[in-house]
Amino acid sequence: MRLGILLGLAPAAALGIGRFAYALVLPGMQIAFNLSYAQAGLLGSSNTAGYLLGALISHRVLYWSGYRRGLFASLWLQALSLALLAIVPSFPLLMLLRFLQGILGAFVFVGGAALLLASGGKSVASGLYFGGVGIGIVLSPSILPFMKSWQMGWLLLAGLAVFLTLLAYSCYPELKEPSPRSKTADGNLKSIRLILIAYGLYGAGYIGYMTFVTTALNTSLLAFWTVLGCGAALTGLVWGPLVARIGGEKGVIVVLACLAGSSLYWLVIHLPWVSAFFFGLSFLGVITAITDIFRQLLPPSGWARAMGLSTAAFAAGQAIGPSLSGLAADLTGGPSGAIGSATVLLSLGLLLSIYVVIRKK
């Protein structure tokens, strides 16, 4: 458990802060650059497009560099990329930096998960690792009282990322490198094909909610984001034991059902704290369940590659999710379309996951 917590500070820095805190800086950037909803979504998609590329090449790059060295080098570089976002003068350069930060975020996420599995982490440890994203989300709103401009926001976020990276580094000696790749012993990856598609739909849906939910709120952004982050931080304690008991495939269904329900626009408007807590609690639980599926269906030599492929599927969904949700918002005249499209995508992922389980019976 200790290793899951410490290593979880890596995705806390790269994703909890590096990606999701974009929603905190977005309102100021929309004003400064006169961005439409679609343009704001495009800026979010540039990050997730980089994440997709990073996921596709992560297993090659990290094996070449060594997973431990590659993980921590990526953490330092992504913190630098956040700081540079404060000084860029144009929208195209913002997109480029968000793209590069997405690549580095994928290296961190895939590398950390592979190292945890190789070091003996089980479902609860995996849940704590993925729940580390929630720690970053909880810490991110702490910048708001000091954020005098959107540029200052990025600098403060970069400082938080550096702090978490330093803490995560304390577990470096305990980490074991993943088993060498073996094309003949990686297992049959076709067995997880449909689950990967469902995972992509989940990626598209959840990032649509995370990008645009702040534009729909009539309540305190600080409080909402903190509640969401607290829910995310509990991921390991709630979903880890459940997934260990019922298995990853059924676990995906339960978590996606909770996630889709908590994303409903009516809930966001009328019961925002309920939406925030249960969405935060659930969105990382999907990853915990997916990781358990890999552990059950594939040999150890196939885990790192499966993590790379699943992260690519996830990133593909995330790359198009903000743009789809932003377009839906423009077509419907507001955030209801963005949140509604996110719910539809999550529901499609849920239905496909149910089909996978039924087909096996």
Largest sheet: none
Instruction: Say which CATH homologous superfamily is assigned.
Output: MFS general substrate transporter like domains
| CATH topology tier name | Growth Hormone, Chain: A
Put simply, the count of helices is: 17
Low-confidence stretches: none
Structural class: mainly alpha
Taken as a percent bin, the fraction of beta residues is under 5%
Number of strands: 0
Distance between the termini: 34 Å
| CATH class membership | Mainly Alpha
| CA gyration radius, whole angstroms | 19 Å
* Coarse morphology: globular
Question: Level of helix content?
Answer: over 70%
Q: In the CATH classification, which architecture applies?
A: Up-down Bundle
What is the overall pLDDT average? 85
H and E string = HHHHHHHHHHHHHHHHH
Total separate domains? 1
